[in-house]
Amino acid sequence: MASASIRPAAVAGMFYPGDRQQLQRQLTDLLSAPAPAPEPFAEAPPKALVVPHAGYVYSGPIAASAYRTLQPWRDRIHRVVLLGPAHRVAVRGAALPAAQTFDTPLGPVELDLDTWLTLQAVPGVTVSDLAHATEHALEVQLPFLMASLGHFRIVPLVVGYMPPEQVAGLLEAVWGGPETLIVISTDLSHYLRYEDARVVDRNTCDRVLALSGDIDPEEACGASPLNGFLLEARRHQLKPRLLDLRNSGDTSGQRGQVVGYASFTFDEDIDGARH
After folding, report:
1. I want to staple 185 with a disulfide (CB 3.0 to 4.6 A). Which of 53, 173, 174, 249 is the partner?
2. 144 lies in some domain
């Protein structure tokens, strides 16, 4: 049965401001900044985003370029399925929290109880508050979602080792329609020299754009959820679009060893869906 507990914000004040007003100001600045490239008009909400999860001073501008695309659809998207890697606790498969609310400096975000119950029957899915307690990869997405959308509920999953077919099956179970957004949280390469990171990350992004689910964990820390999502995206004939590709050397100016970040949207083929 569902737990009535609340998962407290674990990295507020570290990865992003813990003060409500300061956080709101930072989100406003990030989401109103000029986009690196013009964003074409979309006829429907994006089905999915791939976004980074570092501290906002490092990856916030890159993540914002994806979240900016949600603003015209704030009244259409009501459920967000969040998948990200396990950084703190070993997880086999995908872990839902027992807690039914995630707290943030901007207020609480509730889980989608029906989906929470449905997923527990999906192979590879377990329930573990421990997996979520200190995990930042999903938490840092919540303030962006709250600033970009109206009322929504979340389905947060921390993914450890999980075969792509199982991740794809999980996503198929919650795919839904335009009311459902899928968010894959991942950074790219870690601690390479600036120029080396640019080459490696560009190659990784090219394979994401080709919906090629063969990304290595050295190339993206969220490779497990990302590869499963790309398999399912290929089945649904989603159209990927790279919005921004930079690294911590670009955002912080420190180019010794850097971490790569990219943001993508994935759109459904509306014309193809009619046939």
Report:
1. 53
2. yes
Domain range enclosing 152: 6-31+44-273
Strand-pairing partners, residue 183, are 49, 82
165: helix, strand or coil: helix
- Domain tally, the chain: 1
Where residue 149 sits, what CATH number does that domain have?
3.40.830.10
**Is 1 inside a domain boundary?**
no
As a whole number of angstroms, the distance between CA 92 and CA 109 comes to 26
Residue 73 pairs in a beta bridge with none
129 CA to centre of own chain: 19
CA–CA distance, 230 with 236 (Å, rounded to integer): 10
CA-CA-CA-CA torsion sign (40, 181, 161, 234): negative
Q: Which residues contact 172 (CB under 8 A, 6 or more apart)?
A: 232
Write the pLDDT tens digit of every residue in 75-122. Answer: 999 999 999 999 989 899 999 999 999 999 999 999 999 999 999 999
- Compute how many other C-beta atoms are within 10 angstroms of the C-beta atom of residue 78: 16
